[in-house]
């Protein structure tokens, strides 16, 4: 089994500082095999915000798979936005925009979806998808395949009531999903919406005998919530079973506490939630 801690949308420059130490301490207690950070490390891509983000990330365990978000590209500096959109991210966080972690149980691939030609939307391109194909195609079938992006491939149920819309999905998602089905990608992790969600891709992407698990993280530390408390996910990953714990901020006791647990199982290349009755039976 592998344990992943999934943080997203930190937004240094607009964080709630009282959350930082309790979150760091809990992440260490959870002893993850990989820490995943799915974008928007800063609020406005300023040097001092990246410095603060880097200093805090350095207090967390590794390895870390980090991808940028749309907020990590300068918004108002036109020169920097279009000619050097992620130079500060690469200087302070990592110059690897598509990081990879692989061991004998799990493969976690980060994919940069942030683009300078749009203010908040993101996309994947064919070159990135072919890189994913090259990385995953020779792995043993028992290795769980994970793709991390900032922009999501799916939306939570009733997301429109909280301000999310179809434009928030990553562009060229259908092209990517066809390749993910070929490769047997198991898990898609993302952020961007500041909304927590876990489900599968079956309703949105009609691909025969394939449905990936989608796990969306809320904002771990930002004051920019969408009706949710600050939260993050912990995933316990096995070849045919993934358990998703959602932790949320308890402002009374000043700590993150477990709010919900969802369990999913794979049959063939289809991931589906375990019904309550099966959960009660200990499956």
TrEMBL record:
Calcineurin-like phosphoesterase domain boundaries: 4-195
Span of the signal peptide: none
Pfam families referenced in this protein's UniProt entry, alphabetically: Metallophos
InterPro entries cross-referenced by the UniProt entry: Calcineurin-like_PHP, CNP_phosphodiesterase-III, Metallo-depent_PP-like
Swiss-Prot/TrEMBL keywords: Hydrolase, Iron, Metal-binding
Family membership noted in the UniProt record: Belongs to the cyclic nucleotide phosphodiesterase class-III family.
PANTHER family (UniProt xref): CYCLIC NUCLEOTIDE PHOSPHODIESTERASE CBUA0032-RELATED, PHOSPHOHYDROLASE
Protein name: Metallophosphoesterase
